[in-house]
Fold this protein.
Amino acid sequence: MSRRVKEEDPLSSGVLVFGQQLRREVPGGIGTYTRSLIAGAARLAQSERPPLRLFASRSPVRPDPLEELGIPVDTSWLSPFLLDRGFEIGMPRIGRDASVVHAVSLAVPPTSVPLTVALHDIAFRSVPDAYPRHGLRWHERALRRVARHAAFCIVPSIATKNAVRDSGVGIGEDRMEIVEYGSDHLPDGDTEATAGVLRRLGVGGDFLMTVGTLEPRKNLIRLFDAYGLARAKLDEAWPLVVVGPVGWGKGAIRPPKGVVFAGEVAPSVLAGLYERARIVAYVPLIEGFGLPVAEAMRAGAAVVSSPVPSSGGAAFEVDPTDVEEIAEALVAVGNDGELHDRLVAAGRERARSLTWEETARRHVTIWRRVANGAS
């Protein structure tokens, strides 16, 4: 009588996630991706999920915030600066005892085991003027390192996949797969804290909202110009609340009347603002996915946006370079209750299909395939 022998899981040695982005002062969307991917993996069935560990530089503070993610953290003795510089010249090598190393951005670590990379976008190719010269040089070098060393790349949209394929660095479609990101990473809105922020800003009723920085590709200046045109045509002169770290915008531009800066807010307040906003406007020049749109739709906001992949066609889409078109969209969605409600319903439906558990499941499938020697 023959016995069935259980094959060893190709990920039995685990996946080492290079989480250096979480050491940045502003981890941004890549930080959200990293934290949410780990949280999504934790929701998978025990039989599905591989052992996960993080690797990063030594922590500048104690306790180490990475330890709050609930998985082991391998910490280098190098500072963030020295680790970044060392990786540029191929040292130190990491992940010798892992099945796969996963880089969450273009910052890829040297490793002798199969490497997968999350390529969120290559916007530096499409809007080079949005990057300083040293930033452009770094991104170009990093993309070519990915092309040389990555066994496989995970991209969030067909737009990113096509851009990478056509970039000329040698990453073909056979080394990429589209995995959309989740929308369920924010906590429930904190009603009391949100109301406190709005009182501080002098916002007592409905308002419009955007999330972003003054970096050129986020396109806030055109959005401010559009709001300036739209404000007098709205049913009420609703203010535009800008959410982002303190200091963004102030002094760099002269926003029109009605624009107020909330600064950086807690995730529960961000969720609360999304829930209360009459419109969330997000009009970047280019996005690989567009997490703020997914967040807003999940919270039940009507969204005016560029045709970012995360919207899935459920937003009121505009040409981000056309100020008048953006203004007309704000007026239409703000004043037409039926249109507003249709966008809310469509956005909720779209967001329901975007979960970090499914994103993590797709990552694990790719990691197993790569560890098994297939791409």
